[in-house]
Amino acid sequence: MKKFLSLVIAIALLSTSCASIVCGTKKKFTINSTPEKAKVSITDKVGNYVYQGETPATIKLKRGAGFFEGQRYTLKFEMEGYESQTLTIESKVNGMYCLGNIIFGGLIGWLIVDPLTGAMWTMNPKDISVIMDKTDKTNTDEKQVTILLLSQVPMELRDKMIELN
Questions:
Q1: What is the pLDDT of residues 17-38, one digit of tens each?
Q2: Which of 87, 132, 147, 162 makes an SS bond possible with 75, Cβ 3.0 to 4.6 Å?
Q3: Domains and CATH numbers, the chain
């Protein structure tokens, strides 16, 4: 019985990996925009939509895109009357994957579990915030009409006015 228990403990220790345990396979993001209620769409590295909604939002995105392959996301912000904006989030190797598996996870964590689950990757920043710029809809070729009361017209310009019947 002691040998069996020792074997189960050894298998459990050898089949774990540090990044998978500590960091998980998904990364949580908070997404904001100024002004709020901007439409945000997120696509993965192959162009599949993984999220569509409005700001503010809190979402979780997968860290990996396959065995030893990090994920990349493109975020597009759109709002009527504002310029659209696009941001990219890239994966990079997680420090817990490197250091943690040397100390705790061993070769199984380093070569199989963390690369397979995507936990070997991290993505920054965790808080995403964009400021939307207003669209400039003025056209210099268009003529503008301004209506004023006679009392608002400066005295020196009144003699240049014409009366319309």
A1: 444 455 667 889 999 999 999 9
A2: 87
A3: 7-137 (2.60.40)
